[in-house]
Amino acid sequence: MTLHASRMEKFIFSCPTTDLLVQLWLNDNEEEGRRENRYEPISCPACVRLHFLNRKSGKLLGHDCDAPVNRS
Ligand SMILES: [Zn+2]
Prior knowledge:
Elements: E1 7-14, E2 21-28, E3 39-43, E4 50-54
Antiparallel strand pairs: 1-2, 3-4
Bound molecules: zinc ion.
Residues 15, 17-18, 44, 46-47, 49, 51 line the site of zinc ion.
């Protein structure tokens, strides 16, 4: 019997809305190489909204080096 269970990958990111650290387990069932620059919609348990997570870099879409949005 071979271990063929789907691999789970752990991702930790800081939610841009709540500033909380969020830990997620994502199913890693994609071919290697296809995940480059691909953003995965994930529902954030902290703010219950969707974020887009780059699986390769672990970064959130649009929150790399952005200036704060709140400019009032
Ligand atoms: Zn969030």
